[in-house]
Write a structure and sequence with these properties.
The structure is a single chain. The protein has a domain of 118 residues: P-loop containing nucleotide triphosphate hydrolases (Rossmann fold), CATH 3.40.50.300. The protein is built from ten helices and ten strands. The chain is globular, with a radius of gyration of 17 Å. The N and C termini lie far apart (36 Å). The chain binds adenosine-5'-triphosphate. The site of adenosine-5'-triphosphate (ATP) has 10 residues, from α1. Pfam families: ABC_tran.
Length: 235
């Protein structure tokens, strides 16, 4: 069963000024799907709309056979979609463990069990569990943000530029963690500025331009395409 289907999605921040202009998008089980495109193309807006932070004015968003377009963010989270925003994604003055607790707020009864699973998946979070989030390195902080998202045991994880501001080594480590998430059964939609590297770890890529689909296909094919490299990947 397809994890997520987005059809003819129209959405924006103010009435009459649509940013997404009829977008189509899908994620299959155990896929990493990469979303790239020029600045302002609407990549983050797409993730925010799927996560319920923006209301679609037209189109359909279906998660595992359930229409979720227009639901509130915590209801969408309950359905099994976790969103990791680009900024302000951890609580700096709380410990790592308290941040995980915040991530699991919609299901407090299973909190301990989930936190154990997340800390087993990311051992660095167990080692740093008592440390304030603001004292983590950039890469560790991003792992914590992903760990918080995993607290709801999501079927789909939406990641908005998770490697922004990270060193090349830390970005590479994070990409390896994203692959591990796919390997444990998560479907992932990933927006990245770091397009080539993100495409290299992804199964399929969507290139958006001005709120519309431009090209999509298997990442390996798009990476090998000279025109796409020239037009979108700075090659
Ligand atoms: N909170 C907001 N209020 C109004 N307009 C916004 C808001 N956030 C984004 N926009 C506008 O929506 C358009 C798409 O922005 P979005 O952040 O989705 O693009 P993006 O493809 O993720 O870009 P980038 O690669 O630069 O991060 C832009 O024109 C932007 O100015």
């Amino acid at each position: 069963m397809t994890v997520l289907t987005v059809e003819n999605l129209v959405a924006g921040y103010t009435p009459g000024d649509q940013i997404l202009k009829g977008l189509n998008f899908r994620v299959e089980p155990r896929e990493i799907v990469c979303i790239v495109g020029p600045n302002g193309a609407g990549k983050s807006t797409l993730l925010k709309t799927i996560a319920g932070l923006l209301h679609p004015s037209e189109g359909r968003i279906v998660f595992a056979d359930t229409p979720i377009g227009g639901l509130r963010p915590h209801d969408i989270s309950r359905h099994g979609i976790a969103f990791v925003p680009q900024e302000h994604n951890v609580f700096g003055n709380m410990t790592v463990y308290e941040n995980l607790e915040m991530g699991g707020y919609i299901n407090p009864r299973q909190f301990r069990e989930r936190a154990e699973e997340v800390m087993t998946h990311f051992p660095i979070l167990r080692r740093k569990r008592g440390q304030l989030a603001k004292t983590l390195s950039g890469g560790q902080r991003q792992l914590l943000a992903v760990g918080m998202a995993l607290m709801v045991d999501p079927g789909l994880v939406l990641l908005d530029e998770p490697t922004a501001g990270l060193s090349p080594t830390a970005a590479d480590e994070l990409f390896q963690e994203i692959i591990r998430l796919r390997d444990v059964g998560k479907a992932i939609a990933l927006v990245e500025q770091n397009a080539r590297d993100a495409m290299a770890i992804s199964d399929r890529t969507y290139i958006l331009v001005d709120g519309r689909n431009n090209v999509d296909g298997p990442s390996v094919e798009l990476l090998a395409n000279k025109d796409i490299n020239r037009m979108f990947l700075g090659g």
